[in-house]
Design brief:
Layout lengths: L2 E4 L9 H6 L6 E7 L11 H10 L3 E7 L7 H7 L3 E5 L5 H14 L2 E6 L17 E5 L14 H15 L4 E5 L4 H10 L3 E4 L1 H4 L4 H13 L2
Helix pairs in contact: 2-3, 3-4, 6-8
The chain binds D-xylitol-5-phosphate (DX5) and zinc ion.
Length: about 220
């Protein structure tokens, strides 16, 4: 089943609770954590995830765009994340495995994320223990960027690996997702769609979520 995950990066942070209520018809809530080092932008951290957890039952999909994420896994798990994604480019393989170990210890779902430059084969050493792979379809750091068509090949390659080695694993895509790109991404093998601008810049976010769902079902 396809899941829609609105990204609160495009929400109004002074009205965050209101903006979360507006997307409760979605499946997951996507929270972008940026450290100003792994990406050239700073967003929110552990206290914001903890506050969100107190106000919603939605599944919290937390995307960590931070260097050496193993340092923060315990804190984000304790704050109430349901799933954490760590970038493969953010640490050496031992650091990535250690981050996944900490998620496992907390019973939180485990994902790795790939920047557009990263070869899809990089997921293979981790794939069998993952709940999700996140393929970036823009360069991480900012919302509202143009979808990179070249990432459709990466989505197809990761889908092939998932079918072969861990069919239960989800494949999430993030960046420039709208009803048009959603249809192509689903066809390529994605099953979780993150959408910031397409949901929050719409006059009616619930209608935008329904549109994404409809587009995803065309394939
Ligand atoms: C970008 C973030 C995305 C961002 C997507 O680095 O990871 O989650 O919010 O925004 P849109 O949907 O506007 O491209
Ligand atoms: Zn994201």
């Amino acid at each position: 089943m396809v899941k829609i995950a609105p990204s609160i990066l495009a929400a109004d942070f002074c009205n965050l609770e209101r903006d979360i209520r507006r997307v409760e018809s979605a499946d997951w809530l996507h929270v972008d954590v940026m450290d100003g080092a792994f990406v050239p932008n700073i967003t929110v951290g552990v206290p914001v995830v903890a506050s969100i957890r107190r106000r919603t039952e939605m599944f919290l999909d937390v995307h960590l765009m931070v260097e050496k994420p193993v340092r923060f896994i315990d804190a984000f798990c304790e704050a109430g994340a349901d799933l954490l994604s760590v970038h493969l480019e953010a640490d050496h393989p031992t650091g990535i495995q250690a981050a996944l170990d900490r998620m496992e210890a907390h019973g939180v779902k485990k994902a790795v994320a790939l920047r557009p430059i990263t070869d899809p084969r990089a997921v293979l050493p981790y794939l069998e223990r993952l709940d999700m792979v996140l393929v970036m379809t823009v360069e991480p750091g900012f919302g509202g960027q143009k979808f990179m068509d070249s990432q459709l090949d990466t989505v197809r390659a990761v889908r092939e690996y998932i079918e072969k080695y861990n069919p239960a694993c989800d494949l999430e895509v993030d960046g420039g997702v709208d009803p048009v790109t959603a249809e192509r991404l689903i066809e390529a093998g994605a099953n979780v769609l993150v959408a910031g601008s397409a949901v929050y810049r719409a006059a009616d976010p619930a209608a935008a979520i329904a549109e994404l769902r409809a587009a995803a079902q065309l394939k």
